[in-house]
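Narrative of activities, Objective 1.

The group set out to show that a structural description can be obtained from nothing but a protein's sequence at a throughput compatible with the screening campaign. Below is one input-output pair from the validation batch, recorded exactly as produced.
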Amino acid sequence: MKDRFRAPLALIATTLAAVSCRAQAVFPLAAYSAGAAYDAAHHGLVVFGGFSSGRYLGETWDWDGSAWTKSATPGPSARNSPALVYDAKRGRVLMFGGDASPAGDLGDMWERVGDRWRQLTAPAPPARTTHLMVYDSRRDRVVLFGGVAGGETLGDTWEFDGDRWMRMATDGPAARALYAMAYDSARGVTVLFGGTTLLGSDTSSLGDTWEWDGRRWAHISVAGPSPREHVQMTYDPRYKTMVLHGGGASDAEAAETWLYDGHHWTRAPYSGPSRRNARMMFDEQARAVILYGGFAAQPSNELWRLGDSSWVRLAP
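Output recorded for this entry:
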């Protein structure tokens, strides 16, 4: 019986090391407007940049489903509000734009394969920030819309075919920033919701829904969430629905979750963290929607997962 309570010294050392490791666990800094994408080739979330404690961040972090790791390899310059997206055909994360001081709006494009960043030299859209990109898997295109340049909102649509950018449309949704956008792989359309036409104290929140099929934008006349900006959305392929969460208007953070099936918006019977300007994506390994960061009075570095009937905080 005594042997049951005699742990070998090696086991004790291992246990103490594990406890010490947990005590020294590392996380990305709580920051505004980081960029994020789910890297399916490497089964993890990639987070880059943001703004924290008066400085622009240029760190890359990876979440493997259980722990964060800070990348030691060099990458893009520090910035706020870059757009990241995963290119499934080529197994790479792409990043475009953002803003920094004193550089202002940025127009450089980068790819990340594994843990290595490389700047791409193909001509790109005009520099901008607070925009989004999604990957259209049916047509193998990255779709970019709007954002801000020089303090003015944009309403242009661009596509990237893996080698070059093409300007596709200037009509469609009104010029805006801080909107939600995601790709519906079952229907083959990019869905856009909300945002704001102005920045600053005169901001005007939007509550309209649009769809892009690769040729034209269509306004979908459907009742849904109240007008809001700083809102986030992703597509859940399990249920073939868009999942929209949070956002807000008049500097108020919402905790609502909404679902859109291509015909109707439905408010989910559960709420999650109050958030503005977080990042949402579908974790293919965990088969779940995850939400990272954002802010509610203060910036956040929290990671949440949406279960069947509730949001669950994963870290920190």
